[in-house]
Amino acid sequence: MFQYATGWLGWSRSEALDAPFPDIELALDGKVDFLAATTPGARRKTRKPRDAAELKERARAVFGLKRPAPDMGMGKSRGAG
Fold it and tell me: How far apart are the first and last CA of the chain?
């Protein structure tokens, strides 16, 4: 992602390292949309979410909302014992 942020988007090293991945992805999408809109004859495929769950997951990523990690131990304590 660092390569895209600094190369394609022209961000500084510190901007790229401080930006969360979803921000970089959104910025890249915007850059591609801009290039497609300003280049004669260019077209961009629209990427629609497959279902409501994917749309919710994208929204969570955009706004930095993360789901709590699932309890892999099914309620059991972790560690020796």
Answer: 41
